[in-house]
Amino acid sequence: MIKIATWNVNSVKARLPLLLRWLEEFSPDVLLLQELKCIEEAFPREEIEDKGYNIAVKGQKTYNGVAILSKSPIEIDLTELPGDREDLQARYIEGFTFNVRVASIYVPNGNPVETDKFPYKISFMERLHNHVKTLLSHEEAFVLGGDYNVIPEERDCYAPGNWEGDALYRPETHAEWRKIIYLGLTDSFRAKNQEEGHYSYWDYQGGAWNKDNGIRIDHLLLSPHAADRLNDVGIDKSPRGWERPSDHTPVWCELETN
DNA sequence: ATGGTTGACGATCAA
Fold it and tell me: What is the pTM of this model?
């Protein structure tokens, strides 16, 4: 079995103690990180290598930043999402490890929707849609994990009415999400669990964590070959309750080894 | 209670 997880850590430097603790306790084989908020040179490489991980980083000062951690060597193939050479934001890294293609993705938030942030989000999702078509043509097992900043359905948020008009819940956002899924990808969490009320993010504000006012926006999307090997999935809520947490908590899936 | 969190940065923006 191979355990693959995704976690938006909201600053890898601020979250290092929690990250090290979670690597120790959960011991994922592969961990996809988002929102590093640092350049590659500032990434806490040694501390994570000491836990037994290989590391590939696409960093950026202050904002964004994604990484792949793996107990097995990582072959990096892409450090940006194809389709827009002018997009300099560090939101995509893709590689090959444990005989599986993996990507760590940080889809733009897109709010406020009346600014250019929303069309940037939509065009990023269109580029992802195009890239997924290319990936599918190779007939490989792949796992695309990350913070998609998409609440897929009503059952993925505590109060759907509050999200009307938000970039995470807009009709255009749902349309792009469905375009990607309908290419043949599996939302791994929904392959095993149909219940409402399972979340991966709780806002820092308004006591959202204590009230369980969350949303499910961190996803692990599987290619057909990977979905055939899906054994189990879960959301590990515990790190959200630790001291100085990220506002996101890790989401994981377990694939059978072949 | 004209507010509400957190992080990086630099005196504000982004989420």
Answer: 0.97
